[in-house]
Amino acid sequence: MPRLIQILRDAALLVALTLPGTGPALSQQGPLVLFRDVHRAMGSEFTIDLYAPNQETADRWMQISFEEVDRIEALLSNYQPTSELSRISREAGTHPVTTDPETFDFVQTALSWSSRSNGAFDITVGPLMRAWGFFFNHGRIPPEEELLALKKQTGWSNIHLDASTRTVSFINHSSMELDPGGIGKGYAVDRVVALLRQQHVSAALISAGSSTIYAISAPPGSQGWPVNIADPAHAGSTLSTILLADTSLSTSACTEKFFIKDGHRYCHILDPHTMHPVENMLQTTVIAPSATDSDALSTATFVMDPDASARLLQSCPQTEAVIVSGTPDSPRYRPIHWPKPLHEAR
Q: Which positions bind Mg(2+) (predicted)?
């Protein structure tokens, strides 16, 4: 059951949220009260903060939201063999697979970002993620022979979509493992946002783990939901503070998922071209109109070199970003249309 928020502490390691005017006095300022609930799905904690007139209404809104997240997970999970995405992964190498409109559109959107990023974003990296041990948090360094053998099972250009028949096929005639990890949570957030808007929710913040959030409007009396962006090169420091309203923010970094071997840190975000973890990149943060887009963009720009990332981001309307490359000892900060100054720690 959601509860009245007294103090909203950090909602994530990468993105910290701070709300003004919370506490018992809030209920005296008007009919809306702030509620919060948390739900485990898609390998993350989905957190929703929303304003509702009472507990019963908040319960109902939370329930339909989390049921939608569970529905998306059942549809698109690569961990569940019964999901539609898993069925496509198994069968599309032998024959065209007719799928439902939602899954078809999801794959089409993912391929669009693959094309726009020249393959830096690629939902076919599943076999590589498994080879490096990131699926089950057992990091390993696979031999090059193993990676080369997997090359036939990867590559977004091997996916063929036929809109007239709504079918998906793999032109390499091999089973592949589609991994929605770089875009799926953003898509789930967008679906929740759509449902809450249908319910006429006036203000809400939907967070998928520590990577993607969307702000519906703003808390009463505020211009937006304050969001602190962490500085990946200086623990405990804030890189920037912004107000979010009717937009999304996604962050990709290697501060949570990685393994260390012989003193070297291996990031969970892989470069599909090299089939190795990305090097010399600390964090990318992207603001975009939809959570699907900000999720995909933060992943793609983490893989691309900063100049290529800047060109891609500048081609996207209403999109702002901060790219932090280099190493913790020598970080390089590159804002792109970022709305606020950067507080670079020294």
A: 182, 295, 299
Interval 54-74 mean pLDDT: 98
Annotated binding-site members for Mg(2+): 182, 295, 299
pLDDT tens-digit readout, 83-96: 999 999 999 999 99
Which of these ranges, 130-144, 176-190, 315-329, has the smallest mean pLDDT? Answer: 130-144
Question: CA angle, 78 as apex, 74 and 81 as ends, to 5°?
Answer: 70
Q: CB-based contacts of 323: which residues, under 8 Å, 6+ apart?
A: 281, 283, 284, 301, 306, 309, 310, 333, 334, 336
Largest Cα span, the chain: 66
Q: Domains plus CATH for the chain?
A: 93-179 (1.10.3980.10)
* Sheet architecture: strand order including 15-17: 15-17, 225-230, 238-244
Average pLDDT, the chain: 90
Tokens matching residue 87: 């069925």
Q: Is the CB of residue 182 less than 8 Å from the CB of residue 294? A: no
Q: What is the Cα–Cα distance from 3 to 135, expressed in whole angstroms?
A: 33
Cα gap 12→197, rounded to integer Å: 24
Beta strands in 89-175 (DSSP E): 97-98, 159-162, 167-170
Do the Cβ atoms of 174 and 50 come closer than 8 Å? no
Residues annotated within a binding site = 182, 295, 299
Helix (H) / strand (E) element for 9: namely: none
What percent of the chain clears pLDDT 70, i.e. is strictly above it? 90
Q: Which two tokens stand for residue 196?
A: 């809450």
